[in-house]
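User: tokens in, sequence out, please.
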């Protein structure tokens, strides 16, 4: 992996950074176009750093739609999601709309700006949930963070906004250095689909084969599967605050 590097706009046309800006492969017209688009946003510099990588270059993250890096904007460091050339999306309109709806509920990194190939949002400086769990073993702190995540999912459920990829929570739950949890990637979110945020996150955190489920089993004790399934069924059948709290108690109770 190459060392982290800060690259100014004028130098983004050069490899290897050009092919990260236009992942997975740069072409001269697209590069010019994207550098200009960044200039219009007021971005002056990109920072290639982070625990993930794209073609051996450190980045904040990479998915099927975007590569996420740090951008310097008006003296601040922000997250820049760059549309992959091979993404099956033509722009960031939908994601920006969904993220702003989530923001209104106090969920997700704060939206900043969007254009055809880029979306800017609050930089979450921290770790993916499983890495965070591996490095934080204080039971009360873990409970606080997980209750927060479940409450965020509850608010999304109540407002009819389904995230769509909570089941892939390994990549979509981040915890920052102040131990605040963030749900990211509203790219596949929907306001028409049935909402399953709470049940999906519960399955991922407490029932699946994820590393998270294993660690939480160690911290809170393995809950009997049948009881968890019962509480989830109850919640699905009668989605109300009381049953949500019952679920919280079941998953994160003493
Ligand atoms: N605002 C952010 N701050 C820090 N890291 C982020 C932010 N948004 C996304 N990431 C990281 O980048 C990865 C890819 O972003 P994501 O929005 O999931 O892209 P995709 O739609 O391609 O899956 C995420 O899994 C996460 O690790
Ligand atoms: Mg994603």
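Assistant: Sequence out:
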């Amino acid at each position: 992996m190459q060392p982290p590097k800060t690259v100014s706009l004028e130098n983004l046309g050069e490899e290897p950074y050009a092919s990260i800006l236009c992942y997975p492969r740069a072409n001269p017209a697209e590069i010019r176009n994207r550098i200009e688009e960044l200039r219009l946003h007021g971005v002056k510099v990109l920072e290639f750093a982070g625990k993930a990588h794209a073609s051996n270059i450190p980045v904040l993250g990479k998915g099927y739609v975007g590569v996420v890096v740090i951008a310097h904007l008006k003296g601040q460091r922000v997250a820049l999601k760059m549309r992959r050339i091979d993404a099956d999306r033509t722009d960031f309109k939908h994601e920006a709309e969904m993220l702003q709806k989530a923001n209104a509920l106090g969920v997700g990194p704060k939206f900043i700006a969007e254009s055809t190939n880029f979306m800017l949002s609050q930089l979450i400086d921290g770790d993916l949930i499983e890495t965070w769990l591996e490095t934080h073993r204080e039971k009360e702190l873990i409970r606080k963070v997980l209750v927060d995540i479940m409450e965020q999912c509850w608010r999304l459920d109540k407002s009819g906004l389904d995230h769509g990829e909570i089941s892939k929570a390994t990549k979509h739950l981040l915890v920052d250095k102040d131990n605040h949890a963030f749900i990211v990637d509203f790219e596949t979110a929907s306001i028409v689909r049935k909402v399953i945020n709470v049940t999906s996150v519960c399955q991922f955190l407490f029932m699946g084969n994820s590393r998270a489920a294993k660690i939480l089993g160690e911290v809170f004790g393995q809950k009997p599967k049948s009881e968890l399934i019962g509480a989830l069924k109850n919640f699905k059948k009668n989605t109300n605050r009381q049953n949500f709290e019952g679920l919280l108690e079941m998953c994160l109770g003493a």
